[in-house]
Amino acid sequence: MTFNKCHSNNFAQLNKFNMLSLAYIRDNKDEVVKRLQIKNFKGVELVDNIIALDSERRKIQKDLDDNLAEANQLSKEIGLLYKQGKKDEAEALKEQTVVLNDLSRELKEKLQEAETNQNELLIMLPNLPHPSVKTGYGADDNEIIHAHGETDFLHSEALPHWELAKKYDLIDFELGNKITGAGFPVYKGKGAKLQRALINYFLDEATTQGYLEHELPIMINEASGYGTGQLPDKEGQMYFVEKDGLYLIPTAEVPLTNIYRDVILKEDELPVKLTGYTPCFRREAGSYGKDVRGLNRLHQFDKVEIVQIAHPDKSYEILEHMKDYVAALLEELGLPYRILKLCGGDMSFTSALTYDLEVFSAAQKKWLEVSSVSNFENFQANRAKIRFKDKEGRTTQVHTLNGSALALPRIVAAILENNQDADGINIPKVLVNYTGFERIE
């Protein structure tokens, strides 16, 4: 598969942030607050609280260092006095060291408490948006940067995918509701084969592009959730297995990225390119109404994910490449699509810059998001301790990126709706070798 760049932006001339390190927050408070406001973050007062706690922590650290230095100096003097036979003077000084040691223990406890309080606030701060991200409050404020394909090509009596699924016995929503509940559909016959064909097609294309395939756990521990920023931000959206302290994954991004948690890479190992297929689980709390019909919004769905761990100087070039790769998949499937650059108010907690790719659902006459491609810069790397050692031997943080390539439910919805005729549904040519059939009738 070949693909072309579609409307790349020039990021080279724009400044990059050292994302949410204490030093950066302390030295660039006004800029941090300004960028957080672009994301419509309501807790900017946290920045002042973090700086105040950092000031307190550093004062305690200085007092502790001074106290330990004084105790160390006294120990040297005591040793010298013993050598000189001045036992009484040495014993008197030892009483002072007892006081200093008690004070050191007290200061260490205060220091640990200050660090804990500070870290609890730090994890509540979202990533700062890239300087090119525009202010906005939601989807209506996103910028359409590219569109491809026609959107007016179906007859007036075309059926939405949930009716097509029933007509051709492809997906049983009522059976899924019986077995589990709403949002857990059962794929059947050619519907199940189409699902499997898409997964295999997406994985094959990703591996052709140099992504190493992984089969992953679909549950993660708390450390993994914090490492990639799903916790604490998305805790209410994640399914939690309380007895075992494990979370069902919302996306393969989480286990893929956490493969390299606490790892120091070599510079010549970058970029690391990872892919994997997993089922994904999301509560989608508060999602109601007509927009959740059929496959539009599910609690369990299949997705192939691509992740890159990149050199900071290359991450925006890689972001453009990943975006164009996902667009090429949609073109190969023959689906009308558009690319949006998200405004601050529609971006995720973890992202510095995100492109959404949407396909046109012809029977519903609406755009459906099928992929988000994001650069997190070093936000996740800070949390997950993912670093690399450069040629000079210096250790620094990587940048992490991810993209849906692709999420299946809305792709399936668009394929069924857009390729229907009076007698059946045509399968995109690139999938026929995977499905083993050209039409659903």
SSE map:
Layout: H1 22-27, H2 29-38, H3 45-83, H4 87-122, E1 143-148, H5 161-167, E2 171-172, H6 173-179, E3 186-187, H7 189-208, E4 212-214, E5 219-220, H8 222-228, E6 240-241, E7 246-248, H9 253-258, E8 264-266, E9 272-281, E10 300-310, H10 315-332, E11 337-341, E12 353-361, E13 366-375, H11 379-384, E14 387-389, E15 395-397, E16 399-407, H12 408-418, E17 425-426, H13 429-435, E18 439-440
Parallel strand pairs: 4-9, 8-14
Antiparallel strand pairs: 1-11, 2-3, 5-7, 6-7, 9-10, 10-16, 11-12, 12-13, 13-16, 14-15, 17-18
Helix pairs in contact: 3-4, 5-12, 7-13
Question: What is the count of DSSP helices, taking H or I runs of 4+ residues?
Answer: 13
Major sheet details: 8 strands, mixed
**How is the quaternary structure best described?**
single chain
What low-confidence regions span 5 or more consecutive residues with pLDDT below 50? 7-19
Percentage of residues in DSSP E strands: 15-25%
Q: Pairing-aware structural class of the strands and helices?
A: alpha+beta
Q: Roughly how many Å is the radius of gyration?
A: 27 Å
Span between termini: 29 Å
Mean pLDDT: 92
**What is the total tally of β strands?**
18
Biggest sheet strand line-up: 1-11-12-13-16-10-9-4
So what's the overall shape? elongated
Report the helical percentage: 40-55%
